[in-house]
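Here is one chain, start to finish.
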Amino acid sequence: MSTADHLLLFLHIGFAIFTLGPLTAATMSTPRYIRKRNVVVVRYLHRATQIYGIASLGIFLFGLLLAQGNLAEAWLSVSMTLFVVGLVLLLIVERDQRKAAHLLEVAAESERAAGSASGDAAGEKGGAGADDGRRKDREDGTGGRPADDVAQVERGRIAAISGVVALIWLVVLLLMVWNG
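Its structure:
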């Protein structure tokens, strides 16, 4: 193995360590913060997913340069195919993170508006007839769902796809170690 090949291998492994680790942590942490309704952290994790997702293309690039035309080997083809599938799944996760952050923001705004409206109504009526918290504004994008149900579909899909993507990374790692 030449010095250039050693450098490519170093870059390939370095990109794998420093992009896939944070990328996997960001995607797998997102459902927890959606459940906690922490829109600031969900936005941060969405941005981290975007940045590390783009940076992970370096893994593919350096791996392709390292293969040097040996693409006829089955394990390389399988590894590259799985890597591309993982990136496509990450696009779905990124979309769901963006949508969940939006839904959380809309729900928070509607709760603030409902809280100030119920406070005004309670003040005008002396507390009688105030909103008791069981009724929600149906125009808030949540369809009157309970607070815990905001972005529930996105949360579940992110959790499921993040687990599948993590398994894909492990299979690619296994192929690289076993055959490399």
